[in-house]
Amino acid sequence: MNPPTWLRGRLGVLLSLGPACAVETLPGVPALLLAPVGLWLLFAAPVLLLRGFTDKVVSTRSGSLLLAAGLAVLLDILVALGVNTVLPLLGVERPLTRLVLASATTLVLLALGILAPQAPRPLLRGAPLSGARPVAWAAAVALLLSVAGPIRLNNGLGGAVSTAALVVVTTLIVLLLLRHGRCSPIVLEAGIYAASATLLLLTSLRGWYITGHDIQREYLYFRLTLGGGFWDISAYTDPYNACLSITLLPVSIFRLTGIEDIYVFKAVLPLLFALTPVLVHRAVRNVASPLVALLSAVFFMAFPTFFTDMPFLGRQAIAFLLLACAMLVLTDSRRPLPLRRAVFTVLLAGVVLSHYSTIYVIVGTLATAFAVDTAWRLASRPGRARQHRAGRQGGMRTFLTWWTVAVPAVLALLWAGPLTHTGGQLESTLRVVASDLFGSGDARGGSSDTRYSLFGGAGVTPEERLAEYREDTIGYTRADRADGKYLPLEALAKYPTPVVEKENLPLTLAGRALDTVGLSVPALNGVLRQAAALLLQVLVLVGFVIALRGRNSPFTPVRDQITLTVGALAMMGLFTLVPQLSVDYSVLRAFQQGLLFFAPFIAAGALWAVRRAGRRAVPVLCVLVAGLLLDLTGAVPKALGGYPAQLALSNSGPAYDIYYPHAEDRRAAMWLNQRAAGDDLVVQTDRYSFSRLQTLFTVRTQDSVHPALLRSQSYVLLGSTPTRKDEVTVFFRGDLVTYRYPRDLLDTTRNLIYSNEGAVVYR
Question: CA of 465: how far to CAs of 445, 451, 452, 462, in Å?
């Protein structure tokens, strides 16, 4: 007997769910079997079952697949949140176990398979694969090198393989640009994904432990949720703990796949985020030519925040993935508007659950865009024809409406307020912003990252920032210092803490050759970085003006792209001009988020700039893009020297010094945990040693060892970098400042009680 027509396309998926759930619930299943089964339940099966629904939301086959992937991630979060909320009411104290999560996921997928509409198109059957062979070879080599390169570096070898990976990625992107007219969309998007994943893995796979900045704290809250088998926001009312993208989602992945927990953060989350440039391409392709869409994805990947910061920001990575899905829905005008608006709002609700700051910036962008759109309409002359054109500019009705702005804003306030009580950071930021705006604040500058902005000026010098830091520490410890809890300032006067200049890579043979002809390589590297930042901003403005004029523009933006770009640029200007915003939310991350809206305008500006080259325009563009990629990813500085080493390419440099986890540090922390257990003394260590070791400490710890903050009685742990280089780095008002640490002060006032030739402990 044949199954009903509505069931035939998904019958195989539905029949697989029972055996998959059985494998998950059996004890002693090997990881080699558990991993594919868990990935099937969490991602592959939901994508296949959701395609019937996503086909009704977007009109392209790849767009439907990408949207289904984003909704599958959101579904995994909601399933875990559901069992975490409901089962404790029924007496289940640890709902986040493999048995519960596997059973709940299976039941939800069964319901989805029965209720969701059937996908009208097969997934890959009939999809053209023209131009696939050279792209596949380049992609395979790039991905292989993206794993081999970090492994070599983690074993103490050189960065030649990782540098070769960057060259192959650049070659892959140039190949896509040159053959964009001959490659099918699925081949282009596969190439974009391979390039994206390579850039992310080169950074995320560094170190044998959790490596990076925010990811250390994200991993801590994941471990707290995993250890208790229950997500409890009341136990730790911290904004990080309210981000379900780094608590519930990784717990589900770890439980169902058996993938080692650190590689959930170091590999799985980056590989999910790698879909974002593909979504940028697909969203822009809905309204522009293949070349504009491809360039948009390339510029999104080429911005340094993408491959230096985002691998360490799991919560923001998932938020950006969902936001990119929302932009895909917004730009596809060939499906019903009410349904697209509803899905758009659901995706932004997912951003609310994923990352607090991202949704605040989105709400500001949407509100500004809606205000601009309203003013645009009011400024238009009355008349039915005029109103009709205003409402359907670019072949589609205006997407944004009041409730697409209000609903995410209300959800964000509810989540940060009565639901999780984690809105303290937002309230604090708004208070300081109000103080800055109305002149009652201390008028200190914001993050020095603003120097890269067209809206910004000169940044604060490291010496000025370190002086501010010392002044602050002395101010809030004054009362306790008078009581003898901190070392007297008079005793500290003879122990200065001068700022340490960033150490550059030594000049290579090519760098020395340039130096001999009078060209300063360090100055050249600095100029190239500054020029690249300014170029991207200039191209945004040029592309925006050209697109508005409608002459010689490579694409005609829809109305919402124009208003959202205005909103994103307004937020960029606000973040640059209001110091506290640049401190609490990086200007560079704000630009990366803005690229989801204005990347096609950069592409349009770049195409306009090379238009006079005629038939050679694309080759000229390839040279420009290749140069930009090789410089911004660090391949050019690595080849020349004269620039601080980057973590993805070297076992040295500022990022390596403060983020890379060393075994000696971990051994010292575990020894100190045993020694200080039951002791009333606090353990003091520098901010970045604490960041790397916070999952190991079980004793009371303070993350500063600046002389002005040294207590009269405490343990002091100096990690690898302070021990080997006598350097400590602080993060203050959005800036990293490294200073020379006075070890003589500790030798004079403390006893050395532990040393392993990599880390030391004083008491």
Answer: 9, 15, 18, 5
- Helix-then-strand count for the chain, H and E: 37, 7
Where residue 395 falls among pLDDT bands split at 50, 70, 90? Answer: very low
Contact 688, 647 (CB under 8 A): no
Helix intervals (H) in 122-184? 132-154, 160-178
Supply the pLDDT for residue 378. Answer: 83
pLDDT digits (tens, 9 = 90+) for 600-656: 999 999 998 888 887 888 899 999 999 999 999 999 999 998 889 999 999 998 999
Question: Rounded distance, CA 277 to CA 274, Å?
Answer: 7
Token code pair at residue 52: 């019937």
Query: In angstroms, rounded to a whole number, what is the distance separating the alpha carbons of residues 263 and 321?
Result: 19
End-to-end CA distance of the chain: 79
Q: What is the pLDDT of residues 699-715, one digit of tens each?
A: 888 888 888 888 888 89
Give 530 or 381, the one with higher predicted confidence.
Answer: 530
Contact between 286 and 332 (Cβ < 8 Å): yes
**How far is Cα of residue 640 from the mean position of the Cα atoms in its chain?**
29
Please tell me the pTM assigned to this model.
Answer: 0.92
Please list, residue by residue across 460-471, b when 16 or more beta carbons sit within 10 angstroms of its beta carbon and e when fewer do. bebebbbebbbe
Question: Hunting for tokens 């009312």 — which residue is that?
Answer: 237
H helix or E strand, kind and range, residue 685: strand 683-685
What is the distance between the alpha carbons of residues 475 and 467, in angstroms, rounded to a whole number? 12
Strands 701-702 vs 683-685: parallel, antiparallel or unpaired: parallel
413 — pLDDT class (breaks 50, 70, 90): very high
Window from 201-215, 392-406, 492-506, 672-686 with minimum mean pLDDT: 392-406
Strand-pair partners of 422: none
For residue 701, the cross-strand partners are 683
Cβ-contact 62, 281 below 8 angstroms = no
What local confidence, expressed as pLDDT, does residue 522 receive? 85
Mean pLDDT of 456-468: 75
Closest CA to 446 of 308, 312, 585: 585
Tokens read off for 236: 């730790």
Distance (Å, rounded) from C-alpha 243 to C-alpha 314?
10
Neighbours of 208 (CB within 10 A): 16
Q: How many CA atoms lie within 13 A of 759 on its CB side?
A: 23
CA angle in degrees (0–180, nearest 5) for 101-105-107 = 120
Tokens (6 digits) for 726: 């006598």
In b/e form, how buried is each residue of 379-399, taking b as 16+ CB within 10 angstroms? eeeeeeeeeeebeebbebebb
Q: How far apart are CA 314 and CA 465, in angstroms?
A: 29
Question: What pLDDT shows up at residue 314?
Answer: 94
- C-alpha span between 45 and 57 (Å, rounded): 19
